[in-house]
Design brief:
The protein has 602 residues and is mainly α. The protein is 73% helix and 0% strand. The chain is built from 27 helices and no strands.
């Protein structure tokens, strides 16, 4: 092929330095490099040479690309090059497209094929001829390919393959929730202990509220899920490094084509969290591999529906609070719902705003390999550290901002005085020994029945004071205003505050709920985790949790994803469309779930 060949071993990194040195030498231009030219058969070559000469004579797009390459991209119907050509010289570009159209019609009439398929066939044929000429294959390589083929007869079987894939994903969730439960408990206990120590050591005031409610219960609530995220990424790394994820893409290609997407859309979906724990931003950028602008747009607009690492803590929180008996099965259900929703929306978009026929898909399946411990460690640590870093920077900053919005403005002096008066009156009505018993007792278990009753009434007054202060704040007013609409989906004003913060980053939902329920906490002995607080809160029940899960699954992408969609789509129009359409869809589903469940008595 006219390029240097450097022996390397990808698993160990052997030959990496020599490879980089050879690449630098070639880039420096020490030796003139002749582009490789492959013959594609008389029909294609004739048109290819004809278009190449026209491009060269017109100096068309040759500031950045060779003439033959431009001609080849026109024959392959490359959307990006076609757009560049139409913008530069629409009349000349149309002439080239007409020539390609005549070639396409000729190939369909004579060979029942199209130019892209012929070009792909000749390229793979050329590669195969090179492999047969000088590449040495050892017996264990042949054995590995033979074993991979044998496994694929079952793993990618038309009927058995999807069931195996579902079992693998279910096993991944079972592994994640079962084995991460203990370390997640350790993290929750640590932050509960840290919050308790801060509550004891710090004097009453805004600083104590900021540290306990804003930082420890806010950002700490997100960091509490680090072990779960780590176990999830470890399991996904095994599937990725073993080669099984490529089989998932292969099996889903046929399904994707039914919904107007391309087989290459599968990997952006998986990267975005198709199994769980990914990120929509690299998933959106991975859609660059799609040459069809329509299929690329449909992919960009639907990958945010996947269960990214930011949504995972929200789902884990709600599942632990309301569906703890079937955590793995429920997470599997959430994953399937995300995939079904994304595919149905893609079909809707491809049938309405971005119509067009799907393009062909070719992919190569790598042989199965045993993952290396070094590779698994690197992949797991990199993704986990990315989550920790985000929680310690972006999430922390937004948590502090939301704490300020949930704290200011302070409750007016008149209302604070009224609550304090009610508290003092309750104390005055009680006998002095009972008041002394309540103030001196360290635990409720040591109180007499009368003292417990007094403490209960004092706690109710304190709870009303905290709730009134939270409702009076900026965030509280926003949440209460939205509650006129959100109540149809079962969301109260505290949940609304969290969902508004989730527009910036989905992890904020957990952080905001932690801060909101911490600011409303009045019992210093109460050190329950956030999931336990939600499970006992009066406005929460499994139906509300299910409604919220579907809303979080489908509503607007986070701010960074929206910016990325605008950049990749080339227009803010599609970014705003994603925000508005996704949020309307999510709210409609949440309302239907909540209202239907309520009507059935749940």
């Amino acid at each position: 092929m006219g390029t240097p060949v450097i022996p390397t071993v990808a698993r160990s990194g052997k030959g990496k330095e020599a490879l980089m040195a050879a690449a630098m030498k070639l880039a420096a231009g020490e030796k003139e490099h002749e582009p490789l030219q492959i013959r594609y058969g008389d029909d294609v070559d004739l048109v290819l040479n004809d278009i190449s000469l026209l491009v060269q004579d017109r100096n068309f797009l040759m500031d950045n690309y060779p003439a033959r390459w431009v001609a080849l991209k026109y024959i392959e119907n490359d959307e990006q090059i076609l757009k560049l050509g139409r913008d530069k010289d629409p009349e000349f570009s149309n002439e080239l497209e007409r020539r390609v159209e005549r070639l396409t019609d000729h190939l369909e009439n004579t060979l029942n094929t199209y130019p892209e398929a012929i070009i792909a066939d000749h390229r793979y044929g050329y590669i195969k001829s090179i492999l047969k000429q000088g590449v040495i294959t050892h017996q264990h390589d042949r054995d590995r390919l033979y074993i991979s083929d044998r496994i694929d007869r079952v793993a990618t079987h038309r009927f058995a393959g999807p069931f195996i894939m579902a079992a693998v994903i279910l096993l991944l969730y079972h592994f994640t929730f079962v084995y991460s439960k203990v370390p997640v408990g350790w993290c929750e206990n640590f932050f509960e202990w840290l919050g308790g120590r801060a509550d004891i050591l710090l004097p009453e005031g805004l600083l104590k509220s900021l540290i306990v409610s804003g930082i420890i219960d806010g950002a700490g609530g997100v960091l509490g899920f680090v072990p779960l995220i780590m176990f999830m990424f470890f399991g996904i790394s095994i599937l990725e490094d073993s080669g099984y994820l490529a089989r998932v893409a292969f099996m889903l290609d046929r399904i994707f084509r039914m919904f107007g997407l391309h087989g290459s859309s599968v990997m952006p979906f998986i990267i975005s969290g198709g199994i769980a724990g990914g990120c929509a931003v690299p998933g959106i950028m991975a859609a660059r591999t799609l040459r069809s602008r329509r299929e690329r747009l449909a992919t960009l607009l639907t990958v945010p529906f996947m269960n990214c690492g930011a949504k995972l803590p929200v789902f884990a929180l709600l599942v632990a609070a309301f569906f703890s008996d079937h955590e793995a099965m429920f997470m599997f259900f959430i994953t399937m719902a995300a995939w079904c929703g994304a595919l149905l929306v893609a079909k809707l978009l491809r049938s309405t705003v971005i119509p067009g026929a799907p393009t062909p898909f070719v992919m190569e399946l790598p042989p199965y390999r045993f993952p290396t411990f070094k590779g698994l460690f690197i992949h797991t640590w990199e993704r986990t550290w990315q989550y920790i870093k985000k929680a310690g920077t972006v999430i922390l900053a937004i948590s502090i901002l939301l704490w300020a919005m949930m704290t200011f403005p302070r409750l007016p002096e008149k209302e604070r005085t009224a609550f304090e008066t009610s508290r003092q009156e309750t104390l005055m009505e009680a006998p002095a020994p009972i008041v002394e018993e309540v103030s001196s007792a360290k635990k409720d278990t040591f109180l007499s029945p009368m003292a417990r009753d007094l403490k209960k009434r004092l706690t109710e007054i304190d709870a009303l004071t905290s709730e009134a202060a939270l409702k009076y704040s900026i965030a509280g007013r926003i949440g209460i205003t939205l509650e006129h609409v959100s109540r149809w989906a079962g969301f109260d004003w505290r949940t609304n505050i969290a969902l508004v913060g989730g527009f910036a980053a989905k992890e904020i939902i957990v952080a905001t709920l932690g801060t909101a329920y911490s600011l409303g906490e009045v019992n210093p002995e109460e050190t329950n985790s956030l999931s336990e607080k939600l499970s006992t809160a009066p406005n929460w029940r499994p139906l509300v949790a299910l409604s919220l899960i579907f809303f979080v699954m489908f509503y607007s992408p986070c701010f960074v994803s929206v910016v990325c969609i605008a950049k990749e789509a080339g227009s803010w129009k599609w970014a705003f469309f994603s925000m508005v359409f996704n949020t309307c869809l999510a709210f409609t589903l949440a309302v239907l779930i909540y209202q239907a469940g309520t009507a059935m008595g749940y």
